[in-house]
C-alpha cells in the first residue's frame, strides 16, 4: 500500500480568518506547516485554460481488449477546444488524486497484463481531423465495438462499448464533422471526406501536416507532402475566395497560418530552387541574408492577427530559401492543433503500474503544447522541476516527499530558533530578514491568494524565502525570488513542497541572481548571437543604436517573464511550457527573440534608441499574448535548429 | 537630454531624471504619486526598471520630465549605469526611518561623481516623512550632507504627497538653469565627457570601486 498524505489533505476543513496575528519571526512556526484554506482553494480552481473547452460526448465503460478475456476499461470522450474537435480514450486509473494533489496508488497485481498495457493503449487527445475512418461492428452476439483508422494509416485497437452507446458516438461525430458512409463498406464511415474537391484538397493538406500517430503525443512531425503540394498557394487563395461560410470556419485557422510556411512544391518554383541549390544547413542556411530577417518577420506575422496577402507572399519567398528540414519542422508547428490541457485522468494514463512515468518525453511534450489542468499541476511540476526523478515509482516518491518535508522542518528550525538576543548580534541576518519581510508584503498582493497581508499564504511565502536564505546562505535573498516563489506556492499549497520546488528551480536559475551577473550575462550573449542569425536586420539596427547588449530583455530573462503577464493563469502555463524543456531547455531565450520579432517593426519604424527600446519593452508588460509568443518562439527555435543550439552552447548554456 | 523638436516647430525642453536608492525606500511610490497621484502600500518591488514621464510648466516653458525608476537592491547595482549614464539629474532617495539607506545615498553620490562627472544635478530626497515618529535621520544632518556635495535636499512623503512636486520640478529647474549656464541651449549629447554606451556591465559590478558592499 502506497499512499502519500500531509497535513493539508483536506484544505476545506480549515477556513482561514482573513487576518492573522502579527507575523513576527517567533510566532511563526506553529501554523506554518499547514497549507491552503477554503478561500484559497476557490482561487486555486479558478486557474485553468479550459474556458474554451467543452466535452461534447462521454461514454464510460469503453474497453480495449489486450488479450483473451483481458480488458482495460476506460472512458471515451469527444472534446471541443477552440473549434477543434479531439477524441480521447483514457483507461481508468488504478491510482487516484488525493485532495492534496498527491497521488494514491493501490496495491498492484504486477502480473496483470492490463496494468502494463494501460499506458500503451491510451489514446491521448487526437484531433478528429487526424481520424480518417471509423468502422462500426455490431455483432448479433457479443459487444459492439469500433475500429478507428488514422489518416497516416495507423489502425487503433478496437474499442468495445461494454455499456453500449455506439449510436450516440456516431450522432455526436455527425454533429461535429463530416461523416460519410463508405460506398464500399456500409459499416465504415469516412470522416472529413466530402465530395467537394476543393474541400477535399484542403482537408488533405490539413491532414498531411499533422502528427501521424496518437502515441506521438503531438510532437511536431515533418511530413513530406510533395504530391499534395502543387500550386498550394494559388489554390488556397482561390479557395478562400470561393469557400462557403462553413468550410471557411473549419479551415480558417489553418489558412491563416499555412500560407506563410508552405512547403516547397513538387513542380513549382520551390522545387526548382531546391534542386538548383543543395539543401543549406546550419550556418550556411543562415548566410542567406534577407531570408533570415524575413523568417522572424514571418514567424511573427504568422501569429499576428491580420496577415495580408502581400506579406504572406513575401514570406513564402523567404521561406523557400530556407533549409528544407527546418522549414518542415517549422511548418508542422502551425499545423498541429493544440489539445486541451492535460487533466488528471490523462496524467494517470502516463503512469505505469508502479507509478513510474512510462513515457516521460511524451508527457513533457504534452505539457509543452497544452499545459496542465490545475488539478494535476501540483504533481506534474514536481517532475518538471526535478523534485521527483522521472523514473521514480509512486512508493519512492512518497519516501522522497516525506524525507524532504523532514529536511525542510530542519532547515526552517535553523532560523525560527534565532531568538531576539541572537538576532541583535547578527546584523547580516537581520538585514536579510528585513529585506524578505519588506518584499513579501508587496509580492503579488493583487492576487486573491495573497490578498490578506497577514494571511497564512503571505506568511508561508515569508517562511519559504527565509528558509531559502539560510539554506543557500551564500546566495541569500535577492529581489525577484519572491516573484518566483509566489506562483509555486500557489500551485503547491504546501510550504515544504513549494520550498523544494523553488530550491530545484534555483539550481537552474541561481546564476541569474549572483552578484557577478554571470548567469544573466551568458543568457544575454546567447540571445544576442541568436538574434544575429535569426534577424540580421534588427541586429544591425540595434548595432546602430549601441543596443546589442539586449539589456531591455533583462527582466524577461531574470524571472522568466513573470512580470510580463498579469494573470497567474498565464504565468503558470508559461512556466510549465518552459520547464517541460521540450523544444529547448532555454526556451525563454527564444521567447525573448519571439517578442522582439513580434515588435521589430514598431521598434525600427519608430527609430528607437536604447532608452526608447527599454521603455518600449518595459511597457509591453501585461500586453503580450502568451499563446502567440509561445508559438512564435517555438517556430524560431525550430528555424534556428542546430545553429541556434550552437549559439546557446557558445554562450555557455548547456 | 537633448531637446525635442515638436511638430509645431517650437522647441521643447526635456529632462531625464533617474531615481536611485536602496530597495524599499519608496522610489516607485514617489513616482506613482508624482505621475498618477496615488499611493499603494504594497507597491511591488521594481525589477530592472520602470519609466514614466510628465509635462511640467517651468518658467512659462513646457518641459517633458522623463523619470527612470530603478531596482534598488545592491545585487542589481551593475545595471544602474544603463539608466544614469546620460541622465541630467538624479533623485537619490533614502528612507528617513532607516539610517542605512542614507549611507547608500552617500555611495551613489560618489559613484555618480566618478562615473558621470559634476554636471549631473543631484537632489537628495528623504522619503516617508509621514513616519516622523520613527525618524532615524535628522533633517539637519541630511541637509548638511546635501549642502556639502552641492545638492538640494527635499523632505517628501509618497504617502501624503508632500514634497514630491517640489523635488521633481526643483530638480528640473536646476537642470534647465545649468543648461543655460553651459551655453544657453540644450547640451549636445556627450558634451559632459560621458561616453554613452561605454559602460560595460559584462564584468560584473563595474562600480565596485566605490567600495559599495554587497548584501
Topology diagram in text:
The complex is a heterodimer of chains A (654) and B (215).
Chain A: H1 29-32, H2 38-46, E1 53-67, E2 70-81, E3 84-91, E4 96-97, E5 103-104, H3 113-121, E6 123-127, E7 131-137, E8 145-150, E9 159-161, H4 166-176, E10 179-181, E11 188-191, H5 197-208, H6 232-242, H7 245-258, H8 269-276, H9 282-286, H10 289-303, H11 309-320, H12 324-335, H13 344-349, H14 360-370, H15 374-384, H16 394-416, H17 420-424, H18 427-440, H19 456-471, H20 481-492, H21 495-509, H22 518-534, H23 536-544, H24 554-558, H25 568-579, H26 587-605, H27 610-618, H28 626-650
Chain B: E1 4-5, E2 11-20, H1 27-36, E3 49-58, E4 61-70, H2 80-84, E5 89-95, H3 99-115, E6 121-127, H4 139-148, E7 152-155, H5 164-183
Parallel strand pairs in B: 2-4, 2-5, 5-6, 6-7
Antiparallel strand pairs in B: 1-2, 3-4
Which sequence of SSEs, written as H and E, runs from N to C of chain B? EEHEEHEHEHEH
In the CATH classification, which architecture of chain B applies?
3-Layer(aba) Sandwich
Task: Kindly report how far apart the N and C termini of chain A lie.
Answer: 40 Å
Rg of chain A over CA atoms, rounded to whole Å, is 27 Å
Q: Which two chains form the greatest contact, residue counts included?
A: A-B, 37 and 31 residues
Beta-strand content of chain B: 15-25%
Q: Describe the strand arrangement of the main beta sheet of chain A, using strand numbers.
A: 6-3-2-1-9-8-7-11-10
Amino acid at each position: 500500500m502506497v499512499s502519500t498524505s500531509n497535513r493539508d489533505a483536506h484544505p476545506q476543513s480549515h477556513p482561514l480568518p482573513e487576518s492573522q496575528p502579527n507575523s513576527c519571526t517567533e510566532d511563526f512556526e506553529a501554523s506554518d506547516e499547514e497549507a491552503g484554506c477554503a478561500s484559497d482553494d476557490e482561487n486555486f480552481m479558478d486557474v485553468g485554460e479550459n474556458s474554451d473547452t467543452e466535452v461534447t460526448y462521454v461514454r464510460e465503460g469503453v474497453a480495449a481488449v489486450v488479450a483473451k478475456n483481458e480488458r482495460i476499461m476506460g472512458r471515451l470522450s469527444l472534446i471541443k477546444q477552440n473549434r477543434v474537435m479531439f477524441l480521447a480514450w483514457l483507461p481508468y486509473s488504478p491510482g487516484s488524486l488525493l485532495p492534496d494533489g498527491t497521488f494514491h496508488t493501490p496495491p498492484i497485481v504486477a502480473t496483470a497484463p492490463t496494468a502494463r498495457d494501460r499506458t500503451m493503449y491510451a489514446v491521448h487527445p487526437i484531433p478528429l481531423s487526424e481520424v480518417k475512418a471509423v468502422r462500426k461492428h455490431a455483432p448479433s452476439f457479443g459487444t459492439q465495438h469500433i475500429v478507428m483508422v488514422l489518416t497516416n494509416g495507423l489502425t487503433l485497437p478496437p474499442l468495445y462499448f461494454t455499456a453500449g452507446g455506439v449510436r450516440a458516438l456516431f450522432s455526436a461525430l455527425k454533429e461535429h464533422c463530416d461523416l460519410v458512409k463508405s460506398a464500399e463498406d456500409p459499416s465504415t464511415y469516412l470522416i472529413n471526406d466530402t465530395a467537394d474537391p476543393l474541400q477535399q484538397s484542403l482537408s488533405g493538406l490539413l491532414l498531411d501536416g499533422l502528427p501521424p500517430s496518437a502515441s506521438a503525443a503531438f510532437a511536431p512531425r515533418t511530413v513530406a507532402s510533395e504530391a499534395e503540394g502543387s500550386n498550394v498557394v494559388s489554390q488556397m487563395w482561390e479557395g478562400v475566395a470561393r469557400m462557403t461560410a462553413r468550410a471557411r470556419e473549419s479551415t480558417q485557422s489553418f489558412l491563416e497560418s499555412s500560407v506563410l510556411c508552405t512547403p516547397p512544391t513538387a513542380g513549382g518554383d520551390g522545387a526548382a530552387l531546391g534542386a538548383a541549390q543543395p539543401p543549406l544547413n546550419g550556418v550556411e542556411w543562415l548566410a542567406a541574408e534577407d531570408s533570415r530577417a524575413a523568417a522572424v518577420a514571418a514567424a511573427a506575422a504568422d501569429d499576428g492577427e491580420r496577415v495580408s496577402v502581400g506579406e504572406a507572399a513575401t514570406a513564402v519567398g523567404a521561406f523557400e530559401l530556407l533549409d528544407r528540414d527546418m522549414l518542415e519542422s517549422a511548418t508542422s508547428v502551425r499545423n498541429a492543433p493544440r489539445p486541451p490541457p492535460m487533466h488528471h485522468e490523462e496524467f494517470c494514463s502516463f503512469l505505469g503500474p508502479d507509478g513510474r512515468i512510462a513515457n516521460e518525453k511524451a508527457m513533457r511534450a504534452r505539457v509543452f503544447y497544452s499545459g496542465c489542468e490545475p488539478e494535476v499541476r501540483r504533481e506534474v511540476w514536481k517532475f518538471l522541476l526535478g523534485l521527483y526523478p522521472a523514473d521514480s515509482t509512486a512508493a519512492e516518491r512518497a519516501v522522497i516527499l516525506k524525507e524532504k518535508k523532514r529536511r525542510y522542518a530542519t532547515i526552517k528550525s535553523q532560523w525560527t530558533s534565532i531568538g531576539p538576543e541572537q538576532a541583535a548580534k547578527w546584523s547580516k541576518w537581520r538585514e536579510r530578514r528585513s529585506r524578505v519581510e519588506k518584499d513579501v508584503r508587496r509580492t503579488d498582493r493583487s492576487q486573491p491568494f495573497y490578498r490578506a497581508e497577514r494571511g497564512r499564504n503571505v506568511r508561508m511565502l515569508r517562511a519559504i524565502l527565509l528558509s531559502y536564505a539560510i539554506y543557500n546562505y551564500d546566495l541569500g535573498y535577492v529581489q525577484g525570488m519572491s516573484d518566483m516563489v509566489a506562483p509555486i506556492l500557489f500551485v503547491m499549497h504546501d510550504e515544504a513542497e513549494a520550498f523544494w520546488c523553488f530550491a530545484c528551480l534555483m539550481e537552474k536559475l541561481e546564476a541569474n541572481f549572483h552578484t557577478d551577473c554571470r548567469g544573466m550575462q551568458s543568457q544575454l550573449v546567447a540571445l544576442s548571437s541568436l538574434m544575429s542569425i535569426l534577424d540580421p536586420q534588427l541586429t544591425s539596427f540595434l548595432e546602430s543604436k549601441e543596443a546589442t547588449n539586449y539589456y531591455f530583455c533583462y527582466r524577461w530573462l531574470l524571472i522568466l517573464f513573470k512580470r510580463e503577464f498579469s494573470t497567474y493563469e498565464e504565468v503558470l502555463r508559461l512556466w510549465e511550457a518552459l520547464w517541460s524543456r521540450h523544444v529547448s531547455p532555454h526556451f525563454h531565450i527564444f521567447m525573448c527573440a519571439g517578442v522582439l520579432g513580434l515588435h521589430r517593426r514598431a521598434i525600427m519604424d519608430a527609430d528607437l534608441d536604447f532608452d526608447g527600446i527599454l521603455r518600449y519593452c518595459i511597457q509591453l508588460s501585461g500586453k503580450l499574448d502568451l499563446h502567440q509568443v509561445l508559438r512564435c518562439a517555438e517556430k524560431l527555435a525550430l528555424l534556428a535548429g542546430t545553429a541556434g543550439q550552437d549559439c546557446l552552447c557558445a554562450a555557455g548554456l548547456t | 537630454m537633448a531637446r525635442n523638436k515638436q511638430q509645431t516647430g517650437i522647441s521643447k525642453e526635456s529632462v531625464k531624471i533617474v531615481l536611485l536608492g536602496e530597495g524599499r525606500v519608496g522610489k516607485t511610490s514617489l513616482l506613482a504619486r508624482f505621475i498618477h497621484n496615488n499611493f499603494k502600500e504594497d507597491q511591488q518591488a521594481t525589477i530592472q526598471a520602470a519609466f514614466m514621464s510628465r509635462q511640467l510648466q517651468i518658467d512659462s516653458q513646457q518641459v517633458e520630465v522623463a523619470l527612470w525608476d530603478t531596482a534598488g537592491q545592491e545585487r542589481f547595482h551593475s545595471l544602474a549605469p544603463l539608466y544614469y549614464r546620460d541622465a541630467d539629474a538624479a533623485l537619490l532617495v533614502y528612507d528617513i526611518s532607516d539610517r542605512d539607506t542614507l549611507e547608500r545615498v552617500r555611495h551613489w553620490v560618489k559613484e555618480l561623481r566618478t562615473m558621470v562627472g559634476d554636471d549631473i544635478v543631484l537632489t537628495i530626497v528623504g522619503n516617508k516623512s509621514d513616519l516622523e515618529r520613527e525618524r532615524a535621520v535628522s533633517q539637519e544632518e541630511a541637509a548638511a550632507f546635501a549642502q556639502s556635495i552641492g545638492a538640494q535636499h527635499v523632505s517628501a512623503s509618497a504617502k501624503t504627497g508632500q514634497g514630491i512636486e517640489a523635488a521633481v520640478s526643483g530638480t528640473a529647474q536646476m537642470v534647465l538653469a545649468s543648461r543655460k549656464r553651459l551655453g544657453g541651449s540644450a547640451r549636445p549629447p556627450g558634451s559632459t565627457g560621458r561616453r554613452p554606451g561605454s559602460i560595460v556591465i559584462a564584468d560584473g559590478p563595474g562600480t565596485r570601486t566605490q567600495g559599495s558592499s554587497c548584501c
